[in-house]
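Methods — Computational structure assignment.
A single polypeptide chain was analysed. Its primary sequence is given first, followed by the predicted tertiary structure written as structure tokens.
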Amino acid sequence: MFRALQQRRLTRLAALVAVVTVVSLAATMILPVAAHAQSKGRGPALLPPGQAKKIAFVFFVDMDDSHWAAPYVGPMHRLSVIRGYPDGRFQPNKPVTQAEALVMVLRALGYEDDLDARARYRGLPAAARWAEPYVALADRIGLLDDLPGFNAMKPASRAWVAALLVAAADVDEDAVEEALGLQAFRDMDDVPAEVRVMVRLAAALGWFKGYPGNWFQPNKPVTRAEMAALIARFMDYDRLPAMDGVVRGTITGVRDDRVTLRERSGTRTYRFAREVTVVVNERLAAPDDLRAGMRAWAHVIDGEIVHISARGTGDDVTPRSFEAVGEIERVRVGRDAQLRVSGRTYDVDDRVEVRDVNGRRMDFEDLEVGWRVRLTGEIRDDQRVVTGIRVLDEGVKERVDRATLYDLDAAGRELDVVLADGSRSSGLDASGVPVYDVDSRGRRSRIDLARLSPGDALELAYENDRLVEIRRTGRGSEVIGVITAVRTSGSSRRGLTIDRNLDPDEQDEVSYRFAAVVDVSDTVPGLIVRDLQDLDEGYVVRVTLNPDDRIIRVVVTATEVPAED
């Protein structure tokens, strides 16, 4: 979103200068204030190469640096979030429509690269067609679903904009709990019920300020100047997704031409651009007004800061450490990694060191809910950031494998099963493992292992890869008869047709399909039958079926039906 902003800024500046014909007025608006004052009206003073300048970054004929919104309008205009009018005015007191507010927030979040100029949104009035790609995008990403109705040309009220900002930000559960603990505004009954929590959140996060007497005035339209201030405060929210060209952190050092920020992902130093706007505690300032310890966000182009907004007094910058022990409740990976442990959400440093129960390094992404961990880290900007994780207990990892019993050694307490994926597990140790029969209603009764039979459907329950329970959920069966047809080709109809009546004068033919794995053997001296291809019509067989009547075993007992005496 931010790659072309510098060129756009220069284009707008040139257009404005063309509009403003009085040279002295143009100089008052766009020349660096500090340098202009130093030159005593004789033109801008030249500063040494690389030295940053304080400038009154207001581009509009109807605003100067004395306007209360100047610290916000300049940065938002430079970021191309809020744009002026062709005649060079900003119109700070003009109310914004819901469509305009939506567009401004999407620009602030860096969504312009995701716009589709051909996208359509049904029902948008003609006067708002210019915003259609933005509105369609907001609908596609679900932002409109969280708003109390959307009327593109209706003035955006304070309550509606509060809901918009909270919906657009990744506000976590801790912030919700904090907001609900604050004193409510006296006119909360005038706020639509579905957005009352969002209004309280927006105020708790410092985006909105109430009016004297603890009034919110939820239905009051938001002006363009107010929208610039709201988005500038919103941009300082440290849980916004990472955006190209915008950095956030705590100032740890300031020099003549550079500033060092401790960000979530580490500490970085940036040079000031030749022209830089500085806002400290919502007032226009200079780079030397910045102090270590202040919380700041900055707009960076080509590695140089063109705007920085800071707040605070610049107290101790030495991060306090913390340690916590608890159970993992949620793991979020990615650029803004987080970990929720025992009811608290923590940010995670990009270079976090994670070790398993044996002290071996492991990846953050491999942590699992339910594990007990020890966290170590630093408190940065009142947020706990995890720099080290040690797994203390992986807890109980449960799994259930579905299988079919193929063979049983009851004396040795061993099973031979085929799992649902067709893989075979032989010599499964069932020593000391309880066995249950589960009927169709889910009722369980304990049985002896010896009561299991080949073909039974089983559930094998494991805890941390240890077999702890065997459940029979279906019973296998056995069929004795004569093969009348063999089908070993074709994936869908492979199987046998068996005459279950050994009397040659009577027939009882039934077709059965093969399971994924079929054991084939014989008990006939001199005969070798080990594969499905070895089966032939006329063979007398004993067939084992699983609960789905699929063949899992074929034993040839004779090559022909014995003659009657």
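Note: The longest helix spans residues 5-19.
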